[in-house]
């Protein structure tokens, strides 16, 4: 039988820690809310007819959504870092790069500032090391 | 009576499906991955190992659920589940056939065990569910077993805790054992291992973390279940959080298990990949030969 | 910091809304019901009692959720929620305005407390949610407070246990208390009391059970939370199971509470009706005058 | 932190008890599955255009659904006990009697074998007593 909770996680500390990871935006409520319409736009690309309409006139399609002009520009530029800054989540945005017939590796690589070749090479050699990438504050 | 005979972990990345469909599964890049899985495919194809039903734990990657509805734990009780169109058309694989009798039984049992399940009677399944089937069974006309999809939210924060997942697995085991029909049930935990698909830190792989995780999953899951989310995120990348789902599989097995097979490979596209076969020690079969395979990345140099 | 200052229980039957909309709220049949609620309306209209936000616990009566998706506990995080069309057109009431900041905070906190919430960002609300608002606030242009709808499955079996509901309330209280803004938050538990809407046994009312339930809810909720589902069904009718939702409200208050008001009436259409105002003993206001009202049914003869 | 469950309810006993209540069909998985299409049909009446189509030609509308002829007859007869026997649930079926502009009291009364007047009178006098109505086996 469920009992009342005896120990609780401090949610403010929990959420603060999520912001302490270098080069990473954890998809918290704050981001989910900010990116709601952007992510729902991306979901709409799960229908072939929407993909066609979008590809035929990206701006016109985007204008049907309650998305800021900046975020629309990020979409049209295929700037995934910027889309994530606008609250996008990679699994939602996957519908966009899939519409472009691009892979997860392409999308991930595009966010690192590396060329696709260098990114692929880094992955083949064992991927990015977590060394120094774990904590902004702790620098470890 | 039904039994959870086996726990399996598997990657579920879409690139594996693409490799199969484009005939690249034997090339230099994908060859070692599919070689590593071949041992599992041979094992599971034996009639004594073939499951009647798989409880397939995965996360929906914004396919069945959008931002309007985000269930923490859902369970598919339908007769069948169609592959989702994730932006490139639905995967060319058979429909996933459910087992409504067992699924409803598990759903009801879990709610009686105080898990706040979301019961689904219509749901498309995405690569999280269908890729593991492809990796285990190849490209058949129909999947050779029934599947109960169990999607877990690991996308919108917070996901369920490791301890919650581990306890859910235990309750799944108990539910299976109270089902009167004689069924060989597998629980599969999918996703992981270390990977990050976003931002300047994309491409993170943490071999040490992953190998420790596998070791602890086998030998000390209770302690592992207490690992906080932040540790997954720091150590295993933002999408490495998928590993909490492996604890659901592990919770469905008893304290002592035998690892029949233990395959770890770097990289599959952006991710490290781990594939295990675990069985309860008391009823475990013989380990595969070789029992442990490590390939790719820095292993290649060794 | 935000505080749960008050717990309220209320009936949510559609006939109450119909009585208001057809101008029958003062007739012989409905008069005593609305008279009983008038005391609550007067009380809540005082600025010191008016909530900033109500966490409104109710069950969706097959409106937002059909048989394809059945969440055990859902929470509405949207900006607003439209009245559902339940077959006679949407109720002519204002949209329910949410409090996304607090709702998301509660949702996240509950998941960290190991409740497997289903987060909703688009959802219509049915009579379960809008009737209590009508009973408390009449027919305003806009509802005077924000509302976080929290639908609980009590339709498809099994619903959550009483103990699970009680613990959920406790975690809602803790979540509210960790929200930095200074807010007067109410938790309302709606539905019940004894009623059955189906079969030859329809019309069942159990006054003794109801009055005991109210008494235990106030004085010994922990013991009450252990009551098994079958007892609700046998004693309070098949739809009396809605009473488990009152335990969510009660869990959000401390062990010791004062009942400011305690109204019980038989019948409202097919049901017995109970409406309470409870406050934490330490911060409780003055009881209403009269504090306890029993009306209708066999009380009328006394 | 959640721990593994120490005590469990026996689900078979739990479900068996649900069948022990006189004149009552608890909406268990078994009934939910049996009534799936019937209940989804009822849900479809949440749209005004569907209500109009249904009322204009009930049989034609019902024929669009995977519902047995017997269950269709129960719908057309407004036989709520029979609909519930076919797996209907009263909250789903509420969309049907709402379409008919009937109340919960009408629907509930119609299932008791009493006239609407007698049912209303019983309710006014305090409702149906639970005496002898709690358990089929226990007869209490
Ligand atoms: Fe994944
Ligand atoms: Fe209700």
From TrEMBL, chains A, D:
Q: Which residues form a coiled coil?
A: none
* Top-level division of the source organism's lineage: Bacteria
Listed InterPro entries: LigA_sf, PCA_LigA, Xdiol_dOase_LigA
The stretch of residues making up the signal peptide is none
Where is each Extradiol ring-cleavage dioxygenase LigAB LigA subunit domain found? 38-123
> What Pfam families has UniProt attached to this entry?
LigA
Q: What is this protein called?
A: Extradiol ring-cleavage dioxygenase LigAB LigA subunit domain-containing protein
UniProtKB/TrEMBL annotation, chains B, C:
UniProt GO molecular function: dioxygenase activity
Instruction: Recite the UniProt keywords alphabetically.
Output: Dioxygenase, Oxidoreductase
* Location of the Extradiol ring-cleavage dioxygenase class III enzyme subunit B domain: 8-273
The record, for Gene3D superfamilies, names: LigB-like (3.40.830.10)
Identify the domain of life.
Bacteria
| InterPro entries assigned | PCA_45_Dioxygenase_B (IPR034937), Xdiol_dOase_suB (IPR004183)
SUPFAM superfamilies, alphabetically?
LigB-like
One short Pfam name that applies is LigB
Name of this chain's protein = Gallate dioxygenase
């Amino acid at each position: 039988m469920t009992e009342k909770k005896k120990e609780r996680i401090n949610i403010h500390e929990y959420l603060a820690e999520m912001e302490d990871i270098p080069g990473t935006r954890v998809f918290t409520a704050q981001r989910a809310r900010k990116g709601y319409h952007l992510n729902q736009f991306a979901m709409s690309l799960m229908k072939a007819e929407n993909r066609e309409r979008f590809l035929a006139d990206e701006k016109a399609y985007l204008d049907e959504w309650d998305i800021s002009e900046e975020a629309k520009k990020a979409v049209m530029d295929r700037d995934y870092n910027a889309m994530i800054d606008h609250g996008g989540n990679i699994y939602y945005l996957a519908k966009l790069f899939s519409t472009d017939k691009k892979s997860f590796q392409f999308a991930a690589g595009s966010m690192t500032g590396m060329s696709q070749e260098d990114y692929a090479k880094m992955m083949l050699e064992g991927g990015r090391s977590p060394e120094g990438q774990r904590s902004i504050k702790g620098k470890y | 009576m039904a039994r959870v005979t086996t726990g399996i972990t598997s990657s579920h990345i879409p690139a594996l499906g693409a490799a199969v469909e484009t005939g690249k599964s034997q090339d230099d890049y994908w060859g070692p991955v599919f070689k590593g899985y071949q041992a599992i495919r041979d094992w599971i194809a034996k009639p004594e190992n073939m499951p009647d039903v798989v409880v397939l734990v995965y996360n929906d990657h914004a396919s069945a659920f959008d931002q309007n509805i985000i269930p923490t734990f859902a369970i598919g009780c339908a007769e069948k589940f169609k592959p989702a169109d994730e932006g490139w058309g639905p995967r060319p694989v058979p429909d996933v056939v459910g087992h409504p009798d067992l699924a409803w039984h598990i759903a009801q049992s879990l709610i009686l065990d105080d898990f706040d399940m979301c019961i689904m009677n219509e749901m498309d399944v995405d690569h999280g569910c269908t890729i593991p089937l492809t990796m285990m069974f190849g490209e058949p006309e129909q999947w050779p077993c029934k599947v109960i999809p169990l999607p877990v939210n690991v996308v919108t924060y917070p996901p369920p805790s490791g301890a919650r997942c581990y306890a859910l697995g235990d309750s799944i085991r108990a539910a299976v054992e109270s089902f009167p029909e004689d069924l060989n049930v597998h629980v599969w935990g999918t996703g992981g291992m270390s990977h990050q698909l976003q931002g300047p830190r994309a491409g993170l792989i943490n071999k040490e973390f992953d190998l420790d995780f596998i070791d602890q999953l086998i030998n000390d899951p209770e302690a592992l279940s207490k690992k906080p989310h932040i540790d997954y995120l720091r150590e295993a990348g933002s999408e490495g959080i998928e590993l909490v789902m492996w604890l659901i599989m592990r919770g469905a097995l008893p304290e002592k298990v035998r690892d029949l097979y233990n395959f770890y490979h770097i990289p599959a596209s952006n991710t490290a990949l781990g594939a295990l076969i675990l069985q309860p020690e008391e009823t475990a079969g013989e380990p595969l030969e070789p029992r442990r395979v490590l390939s790719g990345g820095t292993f290649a140099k060794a």
